[in-house]
Amino acid sequence: MAATPLRRVLAVTVALPLAAAAVIGVEILLARRGPDVPGPPADVSGCLGCTAGQGDEPRLRMVWLGDSTAAGVGAAEAGQTLARQVATGLGRPVQLDVLARSGARVADVVQDQLPAAAALNPDVVLVSVGANDVTHLTSVASYARSWDRLRVPAPARLVALGIPDMGSPPRLAQPLRALAGWRGRRLDRAGARRVSRDAPATYVDIAGATGPAFRRDPERYFADDRYHPSAEGYRLWAEAVLEELR
User: What pTM, to 2 d.p., does this model score?
Assistant: First the structure.
């Protein structure tokens, strides 16, 4: 009879992780079936602030790499995207090229997008990526190795946006949201360490700068899919980036 309490403890010890895994599995399915928004707006790339008679004026050659946030998913028009808001916020002519693709992870940026960026002879390369590494369970070691390989062509400056606050999107139910936030912070620390080693690279702490606002007012800062930033959300991101670029 003395073994009965022990068996109960063992049963609970086994059952709790299984139950938690089942709950998270259901929440992942629900998140995947949530509302969608259209793809990124067309014609985000272009020469901004370029007018007739300014052909000889120096243009900053800006290239954006990364995932759907760099591409502008969640914005209703090109001018609301993160890349456009940053480019126009500089107040000077900018040749903007957005090579980002939805669903990309850091390894995809290195393999597929970086070679195309090098061919454009950029002055500054901005990278917004990492959320898909969080949701696709990229290991910390693999994530760090990919950042080690992300080298922009000299003399271009690298501006790396940190992983956004993955514990804030209302599309993710609890406890999945908390788990995503924890994974996001772990990967972000690894990426930030890699970026900080490489001058003249710059790291922008997007989660720290904008995460609290996204949590306070999700209706304002998230798009209709309750996952990607809205135009107002991208404005907050752009302000954080512009502080570094200026």
Answer: 0.85
